[in-house]
Structures are given as C-alpha cells and as structure tokens.
Amino acid sequence: SGQFLPLEDPLLNLYDCPPGVQSAAKYEVVYGSGQNVSSVTLQWVAPDHVSTVVFWSTFVRTFSEFWVDVKSAELEISASGSNYAKTL
After folding, report:
1. How far apart are CA 15 and CA 62, in angstroms?
2. Each residue of 39-84: pLDDT tens digit?
3. What angle do CA 47, 52, 84 make, to 5 degrees?
4. CA-based angle 43:67:34, to the nearest 5?
5. What CA–CA distance (Å, rounded) separates 71 from 88?
6. 86 lies in a domain?
7. For labelling alongside 45, which of 6, 15, 36, 74 has CA 20 to 30 A away?
8. CA distance from start to end of the chain
9. What's the pLDDT at 21?
10. Residue 81 and residue 13: Cα distance in Å, rounded?
11. Number of separate domains in the chain
C-alpha cells in the first residue's frame, strides 16, 4: 500500500493502517467552528509495484449526514518518478 506524507496542517492527521504505514488520512474540522471546507490537499507516495490505484473516502457533514465508500476514478501510476498531482 502507499503512504500519505505529512503536511503542515493542524487539521490533518495521518493514521497507520496497517500498522507502520501511514495509509489513512483524516482531515477534521470541529463542528460549530464556522469553518467550511470545500477541498483538502494530500500528498501520497505509491509503492513501486502498483500500476493503478483507487482511493476510498468517507465524508461527514453532521452526525446524521455522511457519505461512506466514496470511490475515486481509477488512477494510473507512472514509474517515471516525477511528481504528479490529480484532483479527485
């Protein structure tokens, strides 16, 4: 599995899943803070052996309004070693 890279954002937390690999990310805005988030930027490093990847997400607006199993389009991973950005 790939790994998310830490960013200097106090609202972003990275989690090990499986242990030892930061492959889960949580961007948390405290309810009632007045902050609205329309996008989140993450950096992810793919493992060497992967040619395509799909990201799965969960979005929570309120306790009773949320979306689970939100799937990205299938993304092709290049072995060129260059930086690549994709908006999902």
Report:
1. 22
2. 788 888 888 787 888 888 888 888 899 999 899 999 888 765 555 5
3. 70
4. 75
5. 9
6. no
7. 36
8. 19
9. 63
10. 26
11. 1
